[in-house]
Amino acid sequence: MSQTVDRALSILPLLAEGPADLGQVADRLGVHKSTALRLLRTLHEHGLVYRQSDQRYRLGARLFALAQEAMENLDIREIAHPHLTRLNDACGHTVHLAVYEEGEVLYIDKVDSRYPVRMYSRIGKPVAITVAAVAKLLLADLPEAERRAVAEKLDYPMYTPRSTPNAPAFLTELEKAREQGWATDLGGHEESINCVAAPIRGADGRVVAAMSVSAPNVVVSADELLTLLPLVRRTADAISGEYSGRNPVTNPGRDTV
């Protein structure tokens, strides 16, 4: 039975490459055409493959509906939280998770630092969109035209001398974040607070959330915080893998940090 299931599931990535006829499916699986036909018929009955008028098979609409339903029911906060907690255990600093919704970047999770100094950020509160590291990553993933439109509509308050002053400068920072795959806020919102962030991606490679580690200068310098970048990126990659279904969840996040 397990071999039959394995063969049936092996048909799906083949058809993801494009329509294929019975012979091509049989050849790819290394089975007789009659065996391939039985598997295709079963998948067809469940709507996972569709037989075209030219007798070739392609992926069925039911498969896409199931994928969409699964994505809609995924809770990125629930998936990410154990990873954020382990990262906090490893470094001791404040860890945030943020998403972009309706023109705002919002914190949806936070794990406080282990030392007495606390950040005033709150879950559900919009971030300072023109300077926050998580915001840079989320906006950097937008299509270029949308990215420019958003940047031109924003106000650019100078929270500190290091704040982003205008739309051209902001777009430059977004392009940098897009190219390097991470972002920072080094005193742009509060002079005494530094932050390094990494993106969390879905199955299609698009950024669905961003996570960050923040710490005050009295605890660690900006350079010291930047040494945590590999750890932050590994954590984000682990969350991405679990969220997109690329990584097994036998022991979630164990190798995150």
From TrEMBL:
Pfam families: HTH_IclR, IclR_C. The lineage of its organism: Bacteria, Bacillati, Actinomycetota, Actinomycetes, Kitasatosporales. Residues 2-61 form the HTH iclR-type domain. InterPro entries: GAF-like_dom_sf, HTH_MetabolicPath_Reg, Tscrpt_reg_IclR_C, Tscrpt_reg_IclR_N, WH-like_DNA-bd_sf, WH_DNA-bd_sf. The keyword Membrane does not apply. Keywords: DNA-binding, Transcription, Transcription regulation. This is IclR family transcriptional regulator. It comes from the Bacteria. Residues 62-245 form the IclR-ED domain.
